[in-house]
Amino acid sequence: MERELGNERPCWVLVGGRRRLGKALAEDLARDHDLVLTSSRPWGDVTERSRGTTPAQVRTLHWDAADPELVSRMMADLEALARAGVTLSGAVLVAGTFPEAPIGTWSPDALEATWQINLTFPLLCAQALAPHLADGACLQFLLDTSIHTPWLQRLPYSAAKGALAAALPGLARLLAPRVRVVGHALGALLPAEGRDAAFLAEQTLLKRLGTPADLCRAVRFAADSPFLTGEIITLDGGRRWR
Ligand SMILES: NC(=O)c1ccc[n+]([C@@H]2O[C@H](COP(=O)([O-])OP(=O)(O)OC[C@H]3O[C@@H](n4cnc5c(N)ncnc54)[C@H](OP(=O)(O)O)[C@@H]3O)[C@@H](O)[C@H]2O)c1
Questions:
Q1: Which of 87, 119, 127, 158 could form a Cys-Cys staple with 150, CB 3.0–4.6 A?
Q2: Going by DSSP bridges, is the β-strand pair 88-93/11-15 parallel, antiparallel, or unpaired?
């Protein structure tokens, strides 16, 4: 743990805040938030933890979806943060995987691994975080536009995100009125390696890929919208209406 956080800046948890979209979100939020970032891998040196010159106070946690002790680890970490006087006023569940899995290749182990990171892990994180979130906090999930039309080469992934989307309004009911719950069904922002970016852009109404900045705006909008809960914002450049 790093030095004590002050109370001036809101402090958010980003589950999966180390790489790709999570990192972009962390860098944007660090302008006016303190952060708790999780990763499935142990954190390295202080430079990585402090994220260069950002004035944000950044704490790091090691949460791995495959850890058999995950639930007790999360509880212990969140209790330690509370003891340190950290008030959590927002959380974004970023972590996921995007495995290609054509029909014919499915196996119990591969399906289980897909559910574990894309469905079990976010639900367990939500359960652990909810009692530690401040009144009025917003708990946000990163989903996928495939909740509307599944990716045929990634049907297990699409099913996991679809299940999370189906649970989201129920979670909003369970956590209301204290905590709001919002999802973001993302189109292609940072395409996975090997995907054809020009083709993906062509699939949208707006003829472009999304950007991490598009996501940051939506996440800030959800956090700043106290009458919004139980909803999923689709942020895919209109792809689903083609
Ligand atoms: N990129 C896009 O264009 C796009 C489009 C639609 C939806 N999304 C959704 O947006 C989210 C972020 O996507 P992304 O493309 O930035 O990243 P990603 O490659 O899907 O990975 C997100 C994070 O998951 C974490 N993670 C992986 N395995 C884990 C494990 N076993 N336990 C805990 N955390 C684990 C990784 O962090 P560590 O390695 O540090 O643990 C990584 O930072 C995902 O939920 C994805 O489904 C993204």
A1: 158
A2: parallel
